Hints:
The complex is a heterodimer of chains A (145) and B (538).
Chain A: E1 5-14, H1 21-40, E2 44-49, E3 53-61, H2 62-73, E4 78-88, E5 97-101, H3 106-111, H4 113-119, H5 130-144
Parallel strand pairs in A: 2-5
Antiparallel strand pairs in A: 1-3, 1-4, 2-3
Chain B: H1 3-11, H2 21-27, E1 32-35, E2 41-44, H3 46-52, E3 64-65, E4 79-83, E5 89-96, E6 102-108, H4 109-120, H5 130-141, E7 151-158, H6 160-167, H7 169-186, E8 192-197, E9 200-205, H8 211-225, E10 229-231, E11 234-236, E12 239-246, H9 253-269, E13 275-277, H10 281-299, E14 305-314, E15 320-331, E16 335-337, H11 339-348, H12 352-367, E17 375-379, H13 382-386, H14 390-401, E18 408-412, H15 415-418, H16 421-434, E19 437-443, H17 450-455, E20 460-463, H18 465-469, H19 473-488, E21 492-496, H20 501-509, E22 514-516, H21 529-535
Parallel strand pairs in B: 12-13, 15-17, 17-18, 18-19, 19-20, 20-21, 21-22
Antiparallel strand pairs in B: 1-2, 1-6, 3-4, 4-5, 5-6, 7-9, 7-12, 8-9, 10-11, 14-15, 14-22, 15-16
Amino acid sequence: MDNSLYRLVYYSRNQIGDDGAAFSSNVDEILAKSRVNNLRDEITGALLFNAGCFAQVLEGPLERVEAAFERIQQDERHGEVSLLAVDPISHRYFPNWAMGFIGTSEAHAKRFADVGSSSGFDPSRLSGEQIHTLLRDLAIEEEAA
Amino acid sequence: MNAVTSILHTLEPHPFQLLNTEKILELLPRPVLVVGSDGLVVYANKASEVSFGAFPGGAVHALFTGLGTDLPDTSCAPVSVTSIHSGESFDAAFVSFDDGQYLVDLRPASQNQGIALKTDVDELTGLAKRNALLSHLSSALSNGSKSSSIAVHCLDLDRFKMVNDTLGHATGDLLLKKVADRLKAACRKSDVVARLGGDEFVILQHDVDDLAAAEKLASRIVDLVGRTYVLNGHTINIGASVGVAFGADALQPDDLLRNGDLALYEAKKAGRGRYRMFESGMDALLLGRREMEIDLRRALALKQFKLNYQPFLDVSTKRVDGFEALLRWEHPVKGNIPPLSFISLAEENGLIVKIGEWVLRTACLEAMSWPNDMIVAVNVSPLQFKADTLLETVASALRHSGLPAHRLEIEITEGALLDDTDNVIQTLNAMRALGVRISMDDFGTGYSSLSYLQKFPFNKLKIDRSFVACDDADSEAILRSIASLGTSLGMSITAEGVETAEQLARIRGERCTHVQGYLTGRPMGTDQIPAFLAQHIL
């Protein structure tokens, strides 16, 4: 059993679509579930989302991170998953599990504002590491795609 | 003292009547009840108290679910029931007494399953094994009107072997487990997911309303199984190929699986990472290929192959330079089978190496009987380079026939240079060192990569017939540029498929040095060559 600290970074195409209510309720469900699972699994990191994509950094014991990623892979609400990195890290970059809307849609920014603030989502944390910056930029590009 | 006398010996001091029936029933580790005709428990042994909380006077229907309102007829098979008290499952058998009372014998259901589990469940993945799948299939197929509403999905993992080879079997096994999980996630609870061995899985899908429902599951499988895996920090990418077949009334489980496998074969042939639905032509197609393969394996020994030779001429001297050997298969029943219909099959099963060797030896031998210094050109398949015996075969064919090396021309296609280019070029150089000529066949149709022309100085480029047949400006421009490219690299240029005098005039104008086609000579047997040469004038 390998329980050393790892970081997994991916982004994927959101297949929920952007038809208002369905998008909101699906995102709510995903957020609620990942909050519970990740707290249990000692996983920290960030989930960025918009109408176009999901982008995640998962930090934690390798085995837990792999299990979480496998759950994510089995979810049909997204597809075309691009795995950007799986590598060992010396310390966690995110103090907790945070998630937030990222993108230019004002309606979505408003709708999901409380999600970000209640989970402690801090976009500035994404500027420290190159891979995190890359992920943020990818996510913003994918919003319109 | 043997076992029987031992028991007798033990029993002797105790009078047999001490062990009355009630005592035996009390000690029996499995539940037994006696129920009156009114449905109330008359007797409950110790085990039934534990498993059901049963007591005399209680209603039997309050003890377990799965029992109808009436007590079952004694003639019927055991009924599966579940204890309301403990949740355990039992098979209940009913035996009636003369007075309308029943004996209820309850056998724990898990005892039977325990035996089945060992043989029917795959230890690694927890999925059903072949036997379990077959029994599910036969019960679904024997279900009359419902047999058309099932589908099987036969599935193979693409690139699984590479994972096993590079990351080891332990990782391979972990991967199989994850694949099994994803398959279960893609299916409904009522579907059966089985692993038949290795990386071979089958899904039995129930309640398939229409084609679209089966296609939906198949494409979901291809998508989910093909998504990236992370195992022990390794990133692993594999794919899934799926063949789908539908149940039908007259089908046996084996037929249905075979149809699924045929569709799977087509999916893999179409490029893997996709699904194919079974179509009724697929079995005939594969059967035809199988028959042809059996015939092809015998064809050499039965001497059914024959070589014909088509002349090629020097455009400037108007003389025949040599002949290209063309393979003919004279099948005793099907007649002449053209190379296009069997070469790809021979390449697929490797027979091409033996056939190619026969062609080389025969062509060299037959060319010895031709007048003058006529060249014989022989086609060599890319597969023959991979076999690593080509150089030896060429040398030995020359030695045995006594044909001077400069009279042999080896024709290769670009396909030979695609893989393992360095080794192929080494072989080409070694053949050239023997004195053999090397030409590039069908130039213009494949990649037409100029780097191949740079890597090896071919004696000759053969321009594909399609550029000769079309008389549009584009074909003409291509013909002209290949010809001038080749001549400036010091190569001869043969235009193939020349059938009319106009085409001949055109290729002469485009700097082609050689011509081959029906106009200048059809393929002929070796015995016709002297007569052909005697009368031939361009």
